[in-house]
Amino acid sequence: MSDVPALDPLLEQRRSPSVFDPEHSLTRPELMSLLEAARWSPSWGNTQPWRFLVGLRGDATHALIVETLTRGNLAWAPAASAILIGLRQVAALPDDPKGELRTYDYTAYDLGQAVAHLTVQAASLGLDVHQFAGFDHAALAATARVPDHLQPVAGIAIGRWWPETERHGVDPAIEAKEQRPRQRRPAGELVL
């Protein structure tokens, strides 16, 4: 559509790769920058009702998360430099005297905004993000000892997309998925 203004390249070129460079490592400053972007996301009543379980490839938390992945995600996600699990608050914090008065209906929305901010920050750093739901939420919560007031919602794989010219040994089904063109519904279908 010629009357639609151009998107910012960080948004227009965003992708959710299933092929991450297995040699790339996320630096601590990059990780902190991503978490800082999420921290500054808007939230209902400035409650910031999200938390992240952070696993860097090779550490114990990453291994714990990988153990809970569904078969489809197990084929690609472990190669990401980091896997985060986004958690939303579903009950009062243990030390929040006003907690009983709060509503937790919006916390999934707020977590989504925080992850969106993290995703755009990742793009600004030359990183890619693939969000996913395919993991055993209950097993992860139990194994990671997630407090009762938090609920695992989404996985967030972060790393460097592995360019086709450099990659080798990728599962053919995943390779075929990578080759599919990016498509979106027409904008007219998004407005009621």
TrEMBL record:
InterPro entries linked to this entry: Nitroreductase (IPR029479), Nitroreductase-like (IPR000415)
UniProt domain Nitroreductase: residue ranges: 12-160
Organism, as annotated: Rudaeicoccus suwonensis
Residue numbers spanned by region Disordered: 169-192
Pfam families referenced in this protein's UniProt entry, alphabetically: Nitroreductase
Compositional bias segments (type: Basic and acidic residues): 169-181
Keyword terms, alphabetized: Oxidoreductase
An MF annotation (GO) of this entry: oxidoreductase activity
Protein name per Swiss-Prot or TrEMBL: Nitroreductase
Family: Belongs to the nitroreductase family.
